[in-house]
Predict the structure.
Amino acid sequence: MKHHTITIASLTGKGAAVARNLRDYLSGEPGCRVEIISAREGEGLLKVPSIAGHVRQEFMNRDAFIFIGSLGICVRAIAPVIGDKRCDPAVVNCDENGLFVQPVLSGHRGGANDLALRLSRHLGAQPVVTTSSDVQGLWPLDILGRQEGWSVEPWGSRSMTFMMADYVNHARTALLLDVRDRVTEMLERTKPEFVDIYYDYRAIPFDSYALLLAVTHRRYEPPVPAVFYRPKVLCVGLGCEKNIDPRGFIDAFEAGFLQLGLSPLSIRSLGSIDLKADEPAFVELSGKLQIPFHCFSAEDLGRVDGVPNPSATVMRKIGVPSVAEAASALLAGSAGWIAEKRKCAIPGAAAGSPRFFTMAVSLAAGAAREGLIAIVGAGPGDPELITLRGRRFLEKADLILYAGSLVPEKLTHAARPGALVRSSAGMALEEQLELMNRFYRSGRFVVRLHTGDPSIYGAIQEQMAWFEEHDMRYEIVPGVSSFQAAAAALHAEFTIPETVQTIILTRAAGRTPVPEKERLCELARSQSTMCIYLSAGIAESVQDELLRHYSPDTPVAVCYRLTWDDEHILRGELSRLAELVGTTGKSNTVLLVVGAALGARGKRSKLYDPAFAHGFRDSAGEAVRA
């Protein structure tokens, strides 16, 4: 949670140093205003007659208060003005030595827990967090999904407080996931043992559960207490007669939306044709829901293919076959509808007055629990060098298709039980695509695991083209490339001040040709740090081309299977490059590195030079306060 206005109360002279430290740290964030109050005078301190009196006076005007000193003084200062957990500011206490940081009030909703953890990391202090869900490592139900804009809607006979108590006491809980986003991925990954996950409401045996947690845009009436989390995933297209009554329209819209079995709390955006940009009813609905209202040109609406209910009347009047359905599809980024065009009327509207409107609803692209393909960079070989996101994807995938000739098999040991793991080494592209398509069309998650970073000689372009042609959702997870692993293994920085500032990633012309302007002899003119892939088999040709511009004593490294268990690196001079490659006896998974940066020392960067000023430090070496 972002805190924009923070008051730090310095209770002792010794605590003022800690207060200033925290002020400088927190005020470095854009839009954050921090003041220090004290009963004493001092640099940067706002002297007040009474710290407790000032806190009580400003209590509801600040996002957070930080007390430096005794916890008892903090509690006595805020006790008379504590109101409701839904609106109280965050309150954190820290001792005057900066050893312990404890959230005191509004740990979840007000963000005191997160603030205490941030301050602890900055001070090197021990955080003291006592809320039950945090102590047990459980989800904070009252603020779950807040970072993604979810709304929380308790349902049933028990209050939110009692349902949270049931949860932290490990009551059997069903978790329904109707949509997918970053938070639902986290929920799947961190599920407590007493929680079971379902993807279909009808499959939940409610007799077995005391509580339902449901991440859904749909309305249900479960037979057990529930907390509904409403992700912003619904995109609503609208059309109407001119100057329709705003109040009547909003009432009829909300009633119609409920009849569709959908929650208005999940509406992400509204849309219509630009002719309706100033339609009072639409503008008022946007304001009431506090969501954006987008307008599209007739040309944009007309480009949406496959609208299920085109209208000849609309075509005749404004020149496009659809407004509501086309607008919802444009908002969602996908031509699909969970509620096709619905024509509604305002009940009780006077005869002859404007009363008809249309609406259609689409689910935001990426929110549906449908097939997904992730092209993941495996890194150079060591399983510990795959990204955290890449590792998580391996752990949840239904199919892992990995480049077996280039990716160590042990990387796939992260696969969950029941996942299918296949090497693509002996498969043609068409076989790979058929396998991935089969899993995708059944709504499952596919990881295509490529060596290094997929964007560098990853042969993914033809896969992406096929996915796009067949309307298949995919994403790319970058990876650590072998050229980066080479720099680490060689203890080298490939960009040296005043010596070399360019890194070239390339390959020599062999069975796969390269453009004439990218031949090694042309690239060598710059004498940059050059990392040459897929070329060890023609090392003599590589050496000859590089020697046209690099000196014979230029440092080189021949790197075989960087970070693998059998990694082998030979160093020498360019004049012996072919000989070094021959010594390894290897021609595959070899990276050649050439350039003066190898082993260079002694050049100092300007970045940390005390005489060099930049946006975070002046030339005297002092931090610039934002």
Notes: The chain is about 25% helix and 20% strand. The longest helix spans residues 246-259. The longest strand covers residues 356-363. The mean pLDDT is 92.
